[in-house]
Amino acid sequence: MISAYLDRFEEDKAVLLLGDDMKKCNFPRSYLPDGLNEGDYVKIDIQYDKETTEAAEAEAQALLRDDN
């Protein structure tokens, strides 16, 4: 889980400062919950999606076989 500080909004982007070292990240504003304000903190949870990755790889392999 990553803690992020909402530094500011710039048009359709939100500038988030991530983690303890406050790494700057531009993030689509539309993906954030409604009602957030500058100065609020959010939690970001990034997980590997093995099933979707494997399905996409299988689909790509099938397309390559069909082209030959």
Describe this structure in words.
The protein has one helix spanning 50-67, and strands spanning 2-10, 13-18, 23-28, 41-44. The radius of gyration is 18 Å and the shape is elongated. It has a 4-stranded antiparallel β-sheet with strand order 3-2-1-4, with no helix packed on it. The chain is α+β, with helices and mostly antiparallel strands and 68 residues long. A hairpin with a 2-residue loop joins strand 1 and strand 2 (13-18).
Sequence of secondary-structure elements: EEEEH
Low-confidence segments, given as residue ranges, are: none
Q: What share of residues are in beta strands?
A: 35-45%
Domain count: the total is 1
Largest sheet: 4 strands, antiparallel
The assigned CATH architecture is Beta Barrel
Helix content percent band: 25-40%
Which fold name is given in CATH as the topology? OB fold (Dihydrolipoamide Acetyltransferase, E2P)
What is the CA-based Rg, rounded? 18 Å
Shape category: elongated
Mean pLDDT: 94
DSSP strand tally: 4
Amino-to-carboxy terminus distance:
44 Å
Instruction: Give me the secondary-structure category.
Output: alpha+beta
- Strand numbers in spatial order across the main sheet: 3-2-1-4
DSSP helix count?
A: 1
So what's the CATH class? Mainly Beta
